[in-house]
Amino acid sequence: MQGKFIFCVNGDELASQLHNLVRLNHWKNIYCREDKFKTLFSKNTDAVFSAEDLGGCEAAVTSCELLIARTGSIVMSSFQQSGRTVSIYAPIHICIAYTRQLVNDIREGLQLLKDKYQDNLPSLITFATGPSRTADIEKTLVVGVHGPKEVYVFLVDQE
């Protein structure tokens, strides 16, 4: 669905691959609220990974609840450290997921969320499948109108 997928065998490869992506795109300001990622990615790069300027960032890094294999969707919720707006406000969304978060279909994903949160479901559960897109204007596909123009999913084989 026009997203970009990068498989990493471990956290070291994840850091290396993300560093290369940042360097190739000349990004300097990357929004990231998740401490585990800020520490891992801030090494060996000139880019600043901070939670200070979502409006002025070039990209944002988030985790996710799950990945849905059948649809290629990222499942996010309001219970995540990144909250509701980070994944849709930044021009480029970078999602970090682990193989243990990969499920086959939406039914399996919803059941896992129900089991995880039981009677305390998040107020928002959202499914994102690639960059935002619409064909409302003269049936011409336009990407990035209501959300990120690019989406990267890094899937890490081990945590």
What's the structural blueprint in terms of helices and strands?
Elements: E1 4-8, H1 11-25, E2 29-32, H2 35-41, E3 48-50, E4 59-62, E5 66-68, E6 73-77, H3 86-89, E7 92-98, E8 102-103, H4 106-117, E9 125-128, E10 133-134, E11 142-143, E12 150-156
Parallel strand pairs: 1-12, 2-3, 2-4, 4-7, 5-8, 7-12
Antiparallel strand pairs: 5-6, 6-9, 10-11
Q: Can you tell me about this structure?
A:
24% of the residues lie in helices and 30% in strands. The protein is of the alpha/beta class and 159 residues long. It has a single domain (4-156), classed as 3-Layer(aba) Sandwich (Rossmann fold). The chain has 4 helices and 12 strands; from the N terminus they run βαβαββββαββαββββ. The model has no long low-confidence stretch (mean pLDDT 84). The strands form 3 sheets. A 6-stranded parallel sheet has the order 1-12-7-4-2-3.
Quick description:
The protein is of the alpha/beta class and 159 residues long. It is built from four helices and twelve strands, in the order βαβαββββαββαββββ.
Q: Descriptors for this entry?
A:
159 residues, alpha/beta, Rossmann fold, 12 strands, 24% helix, globular
